[in-house]
Amino acid sequence: MTQVKICGLQNQQAIEAAAGADFIGFVFAKSKRRVTIDEATELSAYVPPGVKKVGVFVNESIETIRIIAEQVNLDYVQLHGDESPAFCSEMALPVIKAFEVRDPSDLEKVATYDCDYYLLDSPGGKYRGGSGETFDWSIANQYDFLQKRIILAGGLRPENVREAITEVMPHGVDVSSGVETDGEKDLDKIHAFINAVKKGDNDDISSTK
Ligand SMILES: O=C(O)c1ccccc1NCC(=O)[C@H](O)[C@H](O)COP(=O)(O)O
């Protein structure tokens, strides 16, 4: 089954709507979706058991990440900045390293990292992620040795996520802008996205039996 991560959650209702996801993300980096450590700690109480909590950081210090991870009880850290392979290896938690994909050369450095997952994303707009833009998915296909560890991100929506899964066959998919309306998380879109991935996977399996 394709894993789902819903990112940039900032309130209880959105977290509860994401109950069918595998991961939820709290953004601690500069962003319109940023949460403080105290807000994330409070919101963590609403994260259903079994849903992994991911902290999103950009060029943050190891010490700050450690303090936030402990207080919020994070399961993963997602690094969206210029963090080196050595920096990622020093993390006490499993790491999702994000890479901006403009052309195939952007993925050459992926092989120098030893992380749990590689999140392939569009180049950030104002911030280092959450742009709502797609990138050329065919580039991700050139790295099939990573396929089982790719989380595909960037401009995914309930309407295009099946096409993305069919083309890239990633381990997981990640969304933020595509489940928002007027800059706020939209509960119906969160349900629709999770449904498109999970029900779509089941339908694909049934049709091959
Ligand atoms: O979402 C943000 O605002 C953000 C800001 C800075 C660094 C990372 C950020 N988001 C990380 C994510 O995991 C997003 O879900 C991912 O970039 C895809 O975003 P979108 O294209 O909006 O679906």
UniProtKB/TrEMBL annotation:
Gene giving rise to this polypeptide: trpF
UniProt feature coiled coil, ranges: none
Protein name: N-(5'-phosphoribosyl)anthranilate isomerase
GO molecular function: phosphoribosylanthranilate isomerase activity
The keyword Iron belongs to this UniProt entry's keyword annotation: no
PANTHER family assigned: N-(5'-PHOSPHORIBOSYL)ANTHRANILATE ISOMERASE
Protein's organism: Gracilibacillus caseinilyticus
Domain N-(5'phosphoribosyl) anthranilate isomerase (PRAI): from-to ranges: 4-195
HAMAP family (UniProt xref): PRAI
Reaction catalysis annotation: N-(5-phospho-beta-D-ribosyl)anthranilate = 1-(2-carboxyphenylamino)-1-deoxy-D-ribulose 5-phosphate
Family: Belongs to the TrpF family.
Keywords: Amino-acid biosynthesis, Aromatic amino acid biosynthesis, Isomerase, Tryptophan biosynthesis
Database matches in Gene3D superfamilies: Aldolase class I
InterPro entries xrefs: Aldolase_TIM, PRAI_dom, RibuloseP-bd_barrel, TrpF_fam
Keyword hit for ATP-binding: no
